[in-house]
Amino acid sequence: MSSVQIREAIETDVVDIQLCAQQAYVKYVQRMDREPAPMHADFAGQVARGYVTVATSQAGLVGYVVAYSEGSQFKLESVAVMPDCGGRGIGKLLIEHVEKTAKHAGYKTIELYTNEAMTENITMYPKLGYIEVGRKLDDGFNRVFFSKLL
């Protein structure tokens, strides 16, 4: 794979971001008995608000992350990588970009959640320094919440 570039998403990325979400999250549908929330996200609105960062290569869009400030918190809402690009550190690169952005903006922590059926994420986030801080039913999903001190 060619080198990966990280940049803010633009309007013309929306279709590719939606495709990435569909392809990355479809594997969880059977585990959850429903489509994960990112499969129905308003990416056009999130891109317009500056919440989305993309990873691209010569092949096109290979991943994205949605993150934003909400009051005194900085939230990482979702991250996805095209399945054929998985295991190459693209997700980690996107998360590190969010962490640097949040720290530069003066935030002390990043908050995120994942679905309890996404066991790969529950294993991965602690390896990146995130600590599980709780579990609860939220917006109809069984979510696991994590926090990381920056």
UniProtKB/TrEMBL annotation:
Pfam families: Acetyltransf_1. One of its GO terms (molecular function) is acyltransferase activity, transferring groups other than amino-acyl groups. This is N-acetyltransferase domain-containing protein. InterPro entries: Acyl_CoA_acyltransferase, Bact_Acetyltransf, GNAT_dom. Residues 4-150 form the N-acetyltransferase domain. Keywords: Acyltransferase, Transferase. PROSITE patterns: GNAT. Gene3D superfamilies: 3.40.630.30.
